[in-house]
Specification:
The structure is a single chain. The chain has 23 helices and no strands. The longest helix is centred in the C-terminal third of the chain and has 43 residues. The protein is an all-alpha fold. The protein is globular, with a radius of gyration of 24 Å. α2 packs across α18, α7 packs across α9 and α15 runs antiparallel to α20.
Length: about 550
């Protein structure tokens, strides 16, 4: 065993050190929150706290349920409707929901469904009837969560649907299965393993949702723990209440992550390969599937069109000439770039270390393997247990105890949160690829006695090249659009584009906000589309040999 460990030291140590660093950070954060809490008040849970916890769990459950229902129906419809024009573009658009800044989504939904939105204006014109402010409250929170998460679920599940062997569909046809029977016996078993993972991820994202609830909550009765923490720190400066809520949320999130079946997010940047089914669906089923696709397409694209339509008329010379906008732009791009580079490095090293404990040719057979595999997996998914606002609160408390410029604390906090936010998705993409390359080339590389650098250059990187560009772009967009920590540290001296947009919305400068929203949307979608292509076109490494 020791010989194998020594042989694999270059693969074990870097990722192991990062995993240990992340775990120590989590303990430091929890310890900082715990010791800052008044011990006499930590167990005193008043009706307000129970109300916050109840609504947080309730909206997360409803959001997850609705998102999964819509996501499954949409993925099922897209899997069986494969020949209409623009299908691949539509799937790509739905996949982009993962990187859309939540504040942009909220802004677009308000433009379409708000009191002065397109829907109300049309209703007033045609029927002289207004729907009112229904978007503010539980309805708005659910609509925004379904907008973001149903498209994410459908993009993830579509790959599972299209991976079903054609022979199973032929068997179902020969047995004269109805559409329901085919789904029950053929399709549901194929997606079953993905449902729990995706729903768990969506639940945690909704449980820790911040920007959506902050803007669309409408009143304290619709606040979640995350928003209540922000208000306790930023508005009331009630650190004791913020700490109490943070510890409750941290405990529940951590338990939920630990109790989840695994620590993966079903995510792929690979194009699904459609398998045409050799018979037509019944006409009523085709109409039903087409209606689902059309309605969700309309629901998903209208807010984006609204952002473009409202934004093009803005005074961009005024916006671009604003010093606060320039500061926010430079800060956002700089932090997003640094965070993306570090995310890629961390994900590569963690994936490299983790595969040592999942391969029989390495250390899988030893007793400690499962434990170390679990620790590394958990360390890479800390964000699901410790959302950015709680991290921000921990950094805020540390900034009160250790003297350093607040801007420095803000930068460290934002980069840390950005990395942890992107790591689960990066690991879900890179780990399977690195696992397969090790299974295929371990014997060869060990027999040739390649150095670590040689192995990375000639074995790993050719297969990881396209995924690295995708992960860099994904992390860049995540970092660019996050409103969590900056909500605590944001000021005129230190601002990002999402914080600047939120300030404009809060001061009712709608015209300027529309322009900034369009700029942020353009940067996000542009980066998500262009950055992977730039990386793919780099000829710094060789292409993998075809089999």
């Amino acid at each position: 065993m020791f010989k194998r460990v020594i042989k694999l030291k270059n693969s074990l140590i870097p990722g192991g050190a990062i995993s240990l660093l992340l775990i120590l950070f989590a303990f430091l954060l929890f310890y900082t929150l715990f010791i800052s809490q008044d011990q006499t008040n930590i167990t005193e849970l008043n009706p307000r706290v129970f109300s916050l916890l109840k609504f947080t769990l309730y909206q997360a459950f409803l959001s997850t349920l609705l998102s999964m229902i819509v996501g499954v129906l949409l993925a099922w419809s897209l899997a069986h409707q494969q020949k209409f024009r623009g299908r691949s573009v539509l799937v790509a658009i739905f996949s982009s929901s993962l990187v859309l800044p939540t504040l942009i989504v909220v802004f677009g939904l308000i433009a379409v469904l708000g009191r002065n939105g397109w829907l109300n204006q049309i209703s007033l014109y045609l029927f002289d009837y207004s729907f009112g402010s229904y978007l503010y409250g539980l309805v708005g929170i659910l609509v925004a969560h379904v907008y973001l998460n149903a498209s994410f679920a459908s993009a993830s599940l579509l790959h599972s649907f299209e991976s079903i062997p054609k022979e199973k569909y032929k068997l179902a046809k020969s047995l004269n299965f109805t559409t329901f029977q085919r789904f029950r016996y053929i399709e549901f078993p194929a997606i079953k393993s993905s449902l729990l993972t995706i729903s768990s991820t969506i639940f945690l994202l909704c449980f820790t949702s911040f920007a959506i609830v902050l803007v669309l909550g409408g009143s304290p009765s619709y606040n979640t723990l995350e928003v209540a923490i922000y208000e306790a720190v930023k508005l009331d400066f009630d650190i004791a209440m913020a700490l109490k809520l943070a510890l409750i949320q941290l405990t529940i999130s951590t338990l939920f992550v630990v109790l989840s079946s695994n620590f993966r997010i079903n995510l792929t940047n690979l194009k699904t390969s459609s398998i045409p089914i050799p018979w037509a669906e019944p006409k009523i089923i085709r109409y039903f599937q087409g209606s689902i696709i059309a309605l969700f397409t309309l629901f998903f694209t209208l807010p984006l069109f609204a952002i473009v339509a409202d934004g093009v008329g803005s005074d961009f010379s005024k916006i671009l000439g604003s010093q606060l906008f320039q500061k926010s732009f430079i800060t956002s791009i700089s932090l997003a770039t640094v965070s993306s580079i570090l995310t890629v490095i961390f994900a590569l090293l963690l994936s490299d270390t983790r595969r040592n404990f999942t391969l029989k040719s390495r250390l899988e057979g030893y007793r400690f393997s499962k434990l170390f595999n679990l620790i590394i997996a958990f360390s890479g998914n800390l964000y699901l247990a410790i959302p950015s606002l709680i991290m921000g609160l921990g950094f805020f408390l540390m900034s009160q105890k250790f003297e350093a410029p607040l801007v420095l604390w803000s930068i460290v906090a934002l980069i840390t949160a950005n990395i942890l936010m992107s790591l689960p998705f990066a690991l879900a993409t890179l780990s399977p690829i690195m696992q397969k390359t090790a299974e295929r080339y371990d014997k060869l590389t060990f027999s040739l006695n390649l150095t670590t650098i040689q192995r990375w250059l000639y074995i790993e990187l050719p297969y990881l090249k396209s995924s690295l560009g995708y992960i860099f772009a994904l992390s860049f967009c995540f970092s660019l659009g996050d409103l969590g920590i900056i909500a605590l540290f944001g000021s005129d001296e230190f601002s990002t584009l999402p914080w600047y947009l939120y300030q404009l919305m809060g001061s009712y400068r709608t015209a300027d906000a529309s322009g900034v929203a369009l700029i942020l949307l353009g940067i996000t979608l542009g980066a998500f589309t262009i950055l992977p292509k730039i990386v793919n076109q780099l000829n710094l490494i060789t292409k993998p040999h075809s089999e």
